[in-house]
Design goal:
The chain is α+β, with helices and mostly antiparallel strands and 586 residues long. 26% of the residues lie in helices and 26% in strands.
Length: 586
């Protein structure tokens, strides 16, 4: 769920009244949003970068508001204010008009673009008047869209340009990197594409996007009629056509690997900021020519009509309202509605509401506008007996008993590094049935844990100053690759306990194992209960490791940890460990 930061005073000025924090939080809840935090820019910087980072930064109050991931129209102050005012009945939904296209603003795609980013759309906003706040909002909306629907620019990359500094028609091409040379945004000299890629390889924000095109034989580039480079998507715009506070006419282009997403992104940007045009809510279309010479007009800004039944809406939501009332509720959500003679509702879905894809979305908006807290509670029509999941019930019971045995519960990360489950335990990562994260954020979170033991050992290492002995346990899930499972992996609930003290031996954790088996009513028997069998495991001291067998089937391991494992986890005191699968007992 994306979070936007808006200045409280600017928001209240746009809404036409002030609210207390509690009042605005209530308004957000009614509108289906959540006021996440009341803070300042200084406090945010201090939280992210430390106490020294807030010097000279504004202390103006900021509201951080959680926005549903599919409500792209609420990702900026302009869309949020319009949405709330329409919801409160203080404003009619904006009506957008499309201005006739001018051939000089057309965008032409070459066949080479099919090799890397095959789609493009474009639009023009005329007579725009920017203020510092609206300019910042314009830039911030692009960033929010890049991170959200654009999937970090892999699906769509947005470029905005001062139309008065460039000459159309424009060409979207794909060229070998060595043939691309221009002055990038905020740079002092021209550089080739390889030089720019090298320059931005250490850039805090842009380095994450380089991999999108780095290995391609051609890089996308947009030029004007005179060969001036507008942008090299999805990396950087050109400095020549950069937007400023003095910009009056804006050319917007979106290159994409997903045409539908590009259309949504373009519709969102122009619908939000066309309010600043000299002709309010007017957008000029552009002809976008495909490589075969055919063209389409963008932005589409198309509306469509959905039909729903009043009876179904009442039944699904649990209310009893007439057609006029429900039509009014939909209108509060920017969904203009007309009623036919048979009480069928014909709902007009505007170009700002790309999140509405099914009648269910309309029912949800009716419920939001009606107010969830006003919907009467009613008994379920299906009689069922609720109960705790058996494995969770067993987990809670065992937690209590482990605590009674003198062990302290730990809750460790589900994700860990490859070394934690492999090399530190004396095995190769190829031999570990781990589920790997495709795009890990840090080296500490590369795989889903296959054992609970590494997490407890890292907890011990972080608490070496505590008096000995240290006795920790955890009962949680691990994830193992399983080709027979629908998802290719399965969860397994395990219990792990570690004893760290001056000495190590079976007796320190064997007693806990015996106590658990006694409570589970499993006798010490080779065939009908549980027993131990000597085994070898690289994580344990040779000759001091045993497999825990339940009715002849191995469910875990108990023993004294190897000094090499202790050293890998930066531990100096000997440790005994127990880890078993508890699902066979359910």
């Amino acid at each position: 769920m994306p979070t936007i930061s808006v200045k409280r005073d600017s928001l209240f000025a746009a809404l036409g009244r002030t609210y207390s924090d509690e009042e605005f939080q209530h308004l957000c809840f009614e509108f289906g949003l959540e006021l996440d935090e009341v803070t300042t820019e200084k406090q945010m910087l201090m939280k992210e970068q430390g106490d020294h980072a807030g010097a000279g930064v504004s202390e103006e109050i900021l509201y951080r508001i959680d926005i549903p991931a599919n409500r792209y129209d609420l990702l900026c102050l302009e869309g949020l204010v319009d949405g709330i005012l329409v919801f409160q009945g203080k404003k009619a939904p904006p009506q957008y008009t499309l201005k006739k296209t001018e051939d000089c603003h057309s965008l032409h795609l070459t066949p080479a673009t099919a090799l890397i980013r095959p789609y493009a759309v474009a639009a023009v906003l005329k007579g725009v008047t920017f203020t510092k706040e609206s300019y910042d909002s314009f830039i911030d909306l692009q960033d929010k869209l890049h991170q959200n629907i654009c999937r970090k620019r892999t699906l769509v990359a947005i470029g905005t340009h001062d139309l008065d500094t460039i000459k159309g028609p424009f060409v979207y091409d794909a060229l070998p990197p060595s043939e691309i040379k221009f002055k990038a945004l905020n740079q002092q000299k021209e550089m080739t594409a390889p030089e720019l890629m090298e320059l931005y390889s250490t850039h805090a924000q842009l380095k994450q996007y380089l991999g999108i095109i780095r290995d391609s034989p051609v890089y996308p580039v947009i030029k004007d009629k005179n060969g001036v480079v507008l942008s090299m998507p999805p990396i950087i715009n050109g400095d020549h056509s950069k937007i400023t506070l003095d910009t009056k006419n804006v050319f917007i282009e979106c290159t994409a690997t997903d045409l539908t997403k590009a259309i949504v992104v373009l519709d969102t940007i122009v619908s939000m900021f066309s309010k600043y045009c000299s002709n309010e809510y007017e957008v000029e279309q552009c002809k976008v020519f495909a490589a075969d010479g055919t063209y389409e007009l963008y932005p589409e800004m198309s509306s469509r009509e959905e039909t729903i039944s009043v009876d179904k809406a009442n039944s699904y939501i649990g209310i009893n309202e007439d057609a006029d009332t429900i039509a009014g509720l939909l209108s509060r959500m920017c969904l203009s509605t007309r009623i036919s003679r048979d009480d069928t509702l014909h709902v007009r879905v505007p170009p700002t509401r790309h999140d509405v894809i099914h009648a269910c979305d309309l029912y949800e908006d009716i419920a939001i506008a009606y107010g969830y807290n006003r919907i009467a509670r009613r008994p379920a029509k299906v009689v069922t007996t609720g109960g705790q999941d058996p494995v969770n019930k067993l987990t809670e019971q065992l937690r209590q008993e482990c605590a009674h045995a003198g062990y302290t519960e730990a809750l460790t990360f589900t994700l860990c590094s490859r070394d934690d489950v492999a090399s530190k335990l004396g095995v190769k990562i190829e031999d570990v049935p781990a589920a790997h994260i495709s795009n890990p954020k840090t080296l500490e979170f590369q795989v889903v844990r296959t054992l609970l033991l590494p997490g407890l050992l890292k907890t011990l290492a972080a608490n070496k100053k505590m008096p000995l002995p240290l006795k920790l346990f955890e009962i949680s899930d691990v994830v193992l690759q399983d080709k027979s499972a629908e998802t290719g992996a399965r969860n397994e609930r395990r219990l792990c306990a570690v004893h760290c003290g001056r000495a190590a031996g079976f007796q320190f954790v064997h007693g806990l194992l015996d106590r658990i088996m006694l409570l589970l009513r499993e006798p010490w028997h080779k065939d009908t209960g549980y027993c131990l069998q000597q085994c070898e495991d690289p994580a344990y001291f040779p000759g001091r490791c045993a497999a825990v067998l339940l009715r002849g089937r191995r469910i875990g391991t108990v023993g004294v940890l190897s000094p090499a494992v202790l050293g890998a986890f930066d531990l100096t005191n000997p440790c005994s460990a127990l880890e078993i699968n508890i699902q066979p007992f359910v």
